[in-house]
Structure formats: C-alpha cells, structure tokens
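Sequence of Proteasome subunit beta (Haplochromis burtoni).
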Amino acid sequence: MAIFDVSGYKKYCELREQILPAGLTHLVDRTNHYNFGTKTQEFAVPPGVDPSGFLKSCNHDGGVCIEMNHGTTTLAFKFKHGVIVAVDSRASAGNYLASKDANKVIEINSYLLGTMSGSAADCQHWERLLAKECRLYRLRNNHRISVAAASKLLSNMMLGYRGMGLSMGSMICGWDKQGPGLYYVDDNGTRLSGRMFSTGCGNSYAYGVVDSGYREDMTVEEAYELGRRGITHATHRDAYSGGVVNSEYTPRMTILSISFCLSAKFITFFCMICFNFYVFVSYLYFVFCSNIIHYAKLSLIQNL
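Predicted 3D structure, token representation.
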C-alpha cells in the first residue's frame, strides 16, 4: 500500500470506475468495443481517453512532442484499357525518414487495389478489413463485389469513427462489369468517384504533370510512363515524398482472361470429341471397305 501511495498508482477498481460508465461492469459492455459477432466494423477505442483529444494534447505545450505529420504521394487514373496506380515508397513522420521502400499499394483481391496515404497503420488495418469483407461478399452472393460497393463499404467504416483521430486518404480502384472504377475515400467518410485522383502532400505536383499529358485513349505503355513521370516530379519537388516509383496496372483483360480460359477449355474438349468421332468414323469406313473388297473377291472367284 505504501508503494501505491508513493507512486500514485491507482487500484484496478478505481480505474474501472473511471473507464467504465455507471452500470457497466466489464469492458465488453462498452458499445465501442470490437465484437466479432456483430455485422458492423468496430474495434476497441482506448478506454477513458478521447483519441482525438489525446492526440491534440501531445504537443509542445503539454510537454510531449509527437510529430504526427505524414508525407506521401499517390496517384491513380482511369483510361480505356484499365486503371493505373503509381505511388512513391517513402514513409516519413515529420522530419524523420522511417522507410525508403514502403509498399503503399494494398491488394484487396485480384480485381481491386487500395492505396495508402496518411497513417500507415490505419490504412493497412481498414483495407485488410475491407479485403475480408469483399471475400465474405463473394462467398455469400456467389459473385465478386463491384468497385463502387467496395468503396461504399470502406466509407461506411470510416463514418462510424469520424472525429476519432483516424488519418487515412485511400483510393479504391479496379475493374468490374461496368468497366474501370476509381473512388477516393478518406477518414471522414468522404467518397468521390472520378477519372483521376492524387493524394498526399505532393499531389499538386503530380496533378500538374498528369493533367498535361492525360488522354482517355492512351496505350498501356503511355499510361505507365505518365504515372511514373507524375510521381517522379512529385518526389523531386516535395520533401516528404521519395524513394522509388511503384506502378500497378488493373487491366481490362483480367476479367476477360477468365472467359478466355473457359472458352479455351471448351474448345479443347470439343476438339477431342471431334477427333474421337473422326477416328470412329474412319474405323467404320475401313471395316466397310474391307468387307466390300472381300465380297467382291468371293464373287469374282465364283464366277471363274
């Protein structure tokens, strides 16, 4: 007890009264505690502390300095052959360079990609959760989710945690039955559809390059070069962007390749049937001709 008094440590029962409102006896009774049994996407908010208020208190005046500024440049645009995604690879926290080879493109499934801008932890957590929901959608409905529906799912997740200190600006892009899709979703739940988006502190430089060379009828090689050039100029002008340029391409042929494979298998099967039928007919024709020749010989011998 003396150690508790000297150190200022509070007992668990006293902390529980501060953390849990009146009438609640356990952490799982909190409405904001993550529950795997619910259909809504939730996770446990730090108990007893407002997340956004806590982050605002971590400044020079409070005696603790935590640099929360992030820097990045991500770019995505649509054209007639699909969607191009180009990102830099530098991860920074203020003036601190955390990584030079960060992967800022998250594969949600074979037809959907998501980008990272803001807090890497927030982007990775929610986009991986989105990947799980897209997989469950496929299993429940026996068809894959559209780009618009996937972006709407992510937007609904963000709306439930608006004002809680999340930092995320993501682009959800891919291809579905309606063609190429590109959506912007941020931590406020904002959801926008467009043909071109760029996020991060270097987006103004990337926009300037892409706007000057963008065409709807570009070839895949031209689109690759335009995306690479946009991120390259942003990394040169923006101090918080850098590293290497990572480019991803979500092509239209990704969907067509499935039907093509099915058609190829069907054609192969049909050819095998035709070949077997041809062999069978040839055998019957050979037997028939052999019998005709045999009977002709017998008739000739009898006449002689």
